[in-house]
Design brief:
- By secondary structure, the chain is α+β, with helices and mostly antiparallel strands.
- It has a domain of about 130 residues.
- Strands 1, 2, 3, 4, 5, 6, 7 and 8 form an eight-stranded antiparallel sheet that branches.
- The radius of gyration is 26 Å and the shape is globular.
- The chain starts with a helix and ends with a strand.
Length: about 200
């Protein structure tokens, strides 16, 4: 055996033979200190639960929308123009305050559940899960429609492919599938539905 292998083996065997410290008697243990911290339960809002009925309908978008191969300059320019046109229509129609269902999935960590997103002008974004519990806000799966447009515009130079379908009335992206370069495992899918002004 080499010197390194013997040292490793010696370390493994000595660790296995190590004795634990003797247990202390109760008289040696400090008195129990009660935790006075009050844990606040997540905010429940059962009025948001009806919004999720729209999430139970399975929709297949695989043939819907248009696919852009962003590695070619012409396709990249066409996607920019489409995004610009739809965003201008969204800006012209968007209500001051709105709610919508959002589901985001990607290769890692996978598809997440539907969230109800509430956007009110001048207030922080709010989000709830299907049971009406408020959820922690994260930039990757809780965002406004404007932030979704921002994300798409920033990703034009890093995405290899984008498939996108827009809501015909409000002009927000209702389905977006992207593959980030170098691909193919770097995919994401964003779905938005049940959009309602409030």
């Amino acid at each position: 055996m080499t010197k390194v292998v013997r040292l490793v083996a010696l370390g493994v065997f000595s660790a296995g033979c190590h004795h634990t410290a003797p247990a202390r008697k109760n008289s040696d243990v400090a008195p129990l200190i009660r935790d006075t911290l009050v844990v606040v339960a997540p905010i429940m809002d059962t009025s948001v639960v009806p919004f999720f009925k729209d999430s139970s309908v399975t929709r297949v978008f695989s043939a819907e929308g248009k696919t852009f191969k962003l590695q070619t300059p012409a396709q990249r320019q066409s996607f920019r123009a489409t995004l610009g046109k739809e965003r201008a229509l969204w800006q012209a129609r968007k209500p001051r305050d709105y709610r919508y269902l959002l589901r985001v999935g990607c290769f890692c960590p996978g598809t997440r559940g539907w969230l109800l997103i509430e956007v009110r002008a001048g207030q922080p974004l709010r989000a709830w899960d299907k049971s009406g519990r408020s959820v922690t806000l994260a930039d990757w799966n809780t965002f406004s429609i404007d932030a979704l447009y921002d994300n798409l515009e920033r990703a034009i130079d890093t995405d290899g492919e984008v498939q996108i379908a827009f809501d015909p009335h409000w002009h927000f992206p209702q389905y977006v599938r992207t593959i980030t370069l170098p691909g193919p495992d770097a995919w994401s899918i964003t779905e938005a539905r049940a959009f309602r002004p409030i």
